[in-house]
Amino acid sequence: MVVKSSGTLLLFSAGSIDRRQLLALGAGALALTTFGGAAFAAKPTPIKVAAIFTVPVEQQWVSRIHKALKAAEARGDITYKFSENVANTDYERVMRQYSQEGADLVVGEVFAVERPARKVAADYPKTAYLMGSSFGPTKPNFSVFDNFIHEPSFLTGMVAGKTTKSNVIGLVGGYAIPEVNRLMQAFMEGALSVNPNVKFIVTFINSWYDPPKAKEAAFAQIDKGADVLYAERFGVSDAAKERGVKAIGNVIDTSAQYPGTVVASALWHMEPTIDRAIKAVIDGTFTAEDYGPFSYMAHGGASLAPLDPKVVPPEVIDVVLLKEKEIKDGLFRVNVNDGEPKSTM
């Protein structure tokens, strides 16, 4: 979908106005921040936002970003256009095209194209970029984010540890990168915290979107005794449903699509991150920063999907909700472990 903004970019030169004119315009109208010659000025709404996705917008991770941007569009804060299924080899071209067209903010994920993406950002210092990345921000205009939903992942692990009867839990992930590893590690720690006898089978399919491959990996784990599966990728819950075992959801809540199969889910909410970036662009205060913490539960960036007492015993729900409260109250901290998880059987 392509929508054209009617907004006008306001740029002022500090040397072209005197103090009286500055006061007349108002601090909110200027809100200039300068980094190495680049100035971000306040902008009227709606601002132009473009997004670049390497997978379909239906994919779990990307769908959360897309949902938050669509909500901002519905409020009238932004106009929004996006490209999906962009190959890594074409990413730089698409990113450069949106930048050249005058996007005020470009959003995407650059895990396999870090260097080209940062090169484009350097060429367009007055465009704001907010990119999913394993690395840090780059001044003046390249901010990063990540899905730090390790806290609810720990809680879903507790559910899994209490649910398994075979004491074998399978985990199917996309790639063994920090963003995936930390969720799996937290899940495994949560399971072990309530069931020290549990063992894990870990498989990576080396794809972000290949449901058939994920399904086959899940079948193989079930054949080895797993009766609870961590569905980091699409396709795993289908295998669980077919074989009559339980599944744990990731990023989105699919319990309605898999009733009785998906018993718990760690949810990612991108609205705190997206809304903060949009406000910064509108206010003229956008800087290169790490938005990762805004995916924490404390900021509303992550949550545990409601647990259904019809599929999770009430006594288990009580234990999990108590731990959730401890996390929110700052009395318990879930480890951030980016190391690759390994099978333990």
From TrEMBL:
Coiled coil: none annotated. Keywords: Signal. The keyword Cell membrane does not apply. This is BMP family protein. PANTHER family: ABC TRANSPORTER SUBSTRATE-BINDING PROTEIN (PTHR43208:SF1). Pfam families: Bmp. Residues 61-286 form the ABC transporter substrate-binding protein PnrA-like domain. Signal peptide: none annotated. The lineage of its organism: Bacteria, Pseudomonadati, Pseudomonadota, Alphaproteobacteria, Hyphomicrobiales. InterPro entries: ABC-Purine-Binding (IPR052910), PnrA-like (IPR003760), TAT_signal (IPR006311).
